[in-house]
Design goal:
Layout lengths: L1 E6 L4 H12 L4 E8 L3 H11 L3 E4 L5 H7 L6 E4 L1 H8 L3 E6 L5 H12 E6 L3 H17 L2 E4 L2 H10 L7 E8 L9 H4 L4 H5 L8 H9 L1 H14 L6 E5 L5 E7 L4 E5 L5 H9 L13 H4 L14 H11 L3 H17 L7 H15 L8 H19 L3
Parallel strand pairs: 1-2, 1-5, 2-3, 3-4, 5-6, 6-7, 8-9
Antiparallel strand pairs: 8-10, 10-11
Helix pairs in contact: 5-6, 6-11, 6-15, 11-14, 14-15, 14-16, 15-16, 15-17, 16-17
Bound molecules: NADPH dihydro-nicotinamide-adenine-dinucleotide phosphate and magnesium ion.
Length: 386
């Protein structure tokens, strides 16, 4: 049996992981589960999974959590520090599924104390890729991606050398606005943007998928994870979301990983790595599927992709700038302060400002935090004029 901690059990990835842990209950002992605000779901999952520790990040919910779990034998705690302490408990596997920048520090700590870090929180690699990789190398921690594209690339890379890789082709579904004109994109709201045609995910990543900021983040994530040069990265729209990503090798051969559009596959693979355990997911039926389509990305409608390339070219903490500006812009879009297309303007503004500074190539996590806060303030100020 392996010990496992799940950070963000109350979210979309977390709940899918919880179902797998119930299905594979003879394989895992649950050490920690954490939530942010959803105290009812956290209590429900605690009763279902019987972890040793239950942590709620928002301290205001501690009393309610304690009363919901009265009579059970869990060690309950609350607050940001409690979350970091929980990440410091040694385990075989940590699944990091907190959304956004708050998950980054948690990944950096969990990377020190876990044998395997199953990483869903893409912000960790985008904002702090070199720091995370260094911690994993120093502590001999296996970093296994959960993001479906990166899980696909990781699986295709097994037995291969990075030196033979000619290109990495990230696939994307195209999101809900694949066929929406740029004119109409100006007026879409957050509810429309959050309704993804293929994947069932949390609200923030769903909207990021609609703007292709998710794919943009994934480009940076790929570079940080596999250490490939920017010119080897490509994006192609694959509307059925069956091909999760591909690698082109120097002999012209292409390896792809395929599966249903269900995160269970990537989560199950990461937490069981290097083993592959059976899962109760849909099996692909090619006769029924009949065709797979491919389309280029419309760069005018989706400027996020070019902005990611720009961030990678700038280097230093440009990934953290990119993420902070995108997260702040998304917050403003969610409260109708800015339009859908304005989000890219916010990110471009933040990158322009950062490029004017002296780019710091040696930085620690505190520098990233400072940069994150600064970028959010600047984007908020600038967005008043939009
Ligand atoms: P959700 O929004 O569904 O869930 C986010 C989780 O993070 C919840 O458990 C939430 O708690 C917790 N959380 C939010 N803010 C904080 C905080 N400040 N401190 C501690 N915990 C917090 O997100 P997803 O599950 O969709 O995504 C999780 C991560 O995985 C993201 O980084 C996303 O980009 C990545 N990912 C997701 C995919 C998907 O299919 N959903 C696919 C690939 C990657 P609560 O709900 O209790 O407030
Ligand atoms: Mg993905």
């Amino acid at each position: 049996m392996r010990t496992i901690s799940i950070f963000g059990i109350t979210g979309s990835i977390g709940q899918t992981a919880a179902n797998i842990l119930v299905e594979q209950s003879n394989k895992f002992i649950i050490t920690v589960i954490t939530g942010g605000d959803n105290v009812a779901e956290l209590a429900k999952q605690a009763i279902r999974l019987s972890p040793k520790y239950v942590v709620i990040a928002n301290e205001a919910h501690l009393y309610e959590l304690r009363s919901l779990l009265m009579g059970y034998n869990f060690e309950i705690s609350a607050g940001r520090q409690a979350l970091m302490d929980a990440a410091s408990i040694p385990v075989d596997v940590s699944l990091q599924a907190i959304v956004g920048f708050p998950g980054v520090q948690c990944s950096l700590i969990a990377a020190k104390f876990s044998k395997t870090l199953a990483l869903a929180n893409k912000e960790s690699l985008v904002c702090a890729g070199p720091l995370l990789q260094k911690i994993c190398t120093t502590n001999n921690t296996k970093l296994v991606p959960v993001d479906s594209e990166h899980s696909a690339i990781f699986q295709c890379m097994l037995g291969e050398s990075i030196l033979s890789v000619e290109r990495i082709i990230l696939t994307g579904s195209g999101g809900p606005f694949l066929n929406t004109s740029i004119e109409n994109l100006k007026h879409v709201n957050s509810k429309q943007a959050a309704s993804h045609p293929r994947w069932s995910m949390g609200q923030r990543i769903s909207i990021d998928s609609a703007s292709m900021f998710n794919k943009a983040m994934e480009l940076i994530e790929t570079k940080e994870l596999f250490d490939v040069s920017i010119d080897k990265l490509e994006v192609i729209i694959q509307p059925q979301s069956i091909i999760h990503s591909m690698i082109g090798f120097n002999d012209g051969s292409i390896k792809a990983q395929l599966g249903p559009a269900d995160m269970s596959g990537a989560i199950g693979y990461a937490i069981n790595f290097p083993k592959r355990e059976s899962l109760l997911v849909e099996r692909l039926n090619f006769a029924k599927l009949r065709q797979l389509d491919f389309l280029p990305v419309d760069q005018l409608k989706f400027p996020a992709i070019n902005l990611a390339t720009r961030a990678m070219n700038i280097g230093g903490m440009a990934g953290a700038v990119f993420n902070a500006a995108k997260e702040q812009a998304l917050d403003l879009f969610l409260i109708d302060n800015i339009g859908f297309l304005d989000m890219a303007i916010c990110v471009e503004f933040a990158l322009n400002e950062y490029e004017l500074n002296q780019i710091k190539h040696n930085y620690i996590f505190e520098d990233i935090m400072e940069q994150d806060t600064h970028t959010r303030v600047r984007v908020k100020e600038m967005a008043k004029g939009l």
